Amino acid sequence: xxxxxxxxxxxxxxxxxxxxxxxxxxxxxxxxxxxxxxxxxxxxxxxxxxxxxxxxxxxxxxxxxxxxxxxxxxxxxxxxxxxxxxxxxxxxxxxxxxxxxxxxxxxxxxxxxxxxxxxxxxxxxxxxxxxxxxxxxxxxxxxxxxxxxxxxxxxxxxxxxxxxxxxxxxxxxxxxxxxxxxxxxxxxxxxxxxxxxxxxxxxxxxxxxxxxxxxxxxxxxxxxxxxxxxxxxxxxxxxxxxxxxxxxxxxxxxxxxxxxxxxxxxxxxxxxxxxxxxxxxxxxxxxxxxxxxxxxxxxxxxxxxxxxxxxxxxxxxxxxxxxxxxxxxxxxxxxxxxxxxxxxxxxxxxxxxxxxxxxxxxxxxxxxxxxxxxxxxx
Length: 378
Ligand SMILES: C[S@@+](CC[C@H](N)C(=O)[O-])C[C@H]1O[C@@H](n2cnc3c(N)ncnc32)[C@H](O)[C@@H]1O
Known about the structure:
It comes from Sinocyclocheilus grahami. By secondary structure, the protein is mainly alpha-helical. It has helices at 23-28, 32-37, 44-58, 65-68, 83-86, 91-117, 126-129, 132-145, 216-223, 239-242, 253-262, 278-288, 297-301, 308-341, 345-377; strands at residues 11-16, 146-148, 165-167, 182-187, 192-197, 235-236, 270-272, 275-276.
C-alpha cells in the first residue's frame, strides 16, 4: 500500500544491491566452493534453489531468515498440480503444464548427485534436505519472485540459459497489475534496483508493478495466478479443438492441415474480447475452400477474402468452436465447484486459480460470441 501519494515518474522502491540475492551471493557463500568444483557446471537457477533450501534449513541462524520466513510455504503453479487438476485446465494449457512438471522432474533427477556432494555442509543427510518438495518450493520461489537483472556470467555456472535472476526482498512483495506501467531495472549509478511508477499511485492504494505483457496462461504457468480483466488474455484454439469443426468428408483436409502447419498457421489461433483473431479466421478461410478453389490457398493465407458463402461457413464454424469451448468451460467449472467442496486449503488454492482462469475464458468467449453473432447477422 502506498502510505503517501506516489506521483507519476516517482520512485516506488529502490533496493540497494546488497539486499539482492543473486548467484554472486551464492558463489561467495559457504556453498561457492562446492559449486565451483562441480562438473559439468550447474545452472544459475539450481544454484539459487540450493542456496534457498540450505538457508531455510539454517532457520534463524541464516542471514536471510527474515526473508525466507515470509516466502510462501507452497505455490499454485502447475508444477504443484496433480494430473486431475491439470485435466481441468484449458486444453491448450494442459500440454504446457505437463511440460513444466516434466522439466522440473528432470531437473530434480539430474541434480541428485550434486545435492549429495553438499553433504559435508550439513549434519542431516542431504536426501532428507534436498527433497523433491524442497526443490519444488525453491524452484517456484525463484521463478515467481526473481526480477530480471543482467550481471556478469560466471565461468562456474552453466551458460545454457542467461544468468539474469535476482531475488529482491521487499521489492518482490509488489503484485502485478496488467494496466500499470513501471520502469524497472538496476541503476549502476545509485547501485540500487529501482522501480519507478509511470502513472503514479494514490495514497492508501495498493502499489502494483507490471511483470510484463503476459496473458493469463503465462501468468498461471510462471506465477501461479490469473489477472482478472487482463487485456492480454485470449482463448486459445489448439489443433484438437479446431478439429471439432473440420469436415471429415473434405478430401483435401489432410493437405490443408499440412499446408497450414508448414505456413505456421496451426499455432496461436485465438478468440479475444473483440472476436476471433485474424490468424484463426485465416486458417478457417483456408479450411473452408472447395476443391476447385485450390489455386487460392496461397492468396488466402496472405489475407485475400473468400466468397460470401465461404465467409459464412467460417463464421458459422467459428461460432461452433466458440460454443464448444464454452461447453468445455461450463463442464470444468461444474467439476471445480464439486471438488472445492471437499478440498483442503492447498488444494482449494489450486482449484480457485484454475476456476479464475476458466471464468476469465468464459468472459472472453461471451464477448466473442456477440461479435460473431453480429457478423452472422450482417
Ligand atoms: C513477486 S510475488 C508478489 C508478492 C506476493 N503477493 C506475496 O505476498 O508474497 C509474485 C506472486 O504474487 C502473487 N501475485 C502477484 N500479483 C498478483 C495478482 N494481481 N493477483 C493475485 N496474485 C498475485 C502470485 O502468487 C505471484 O506468484
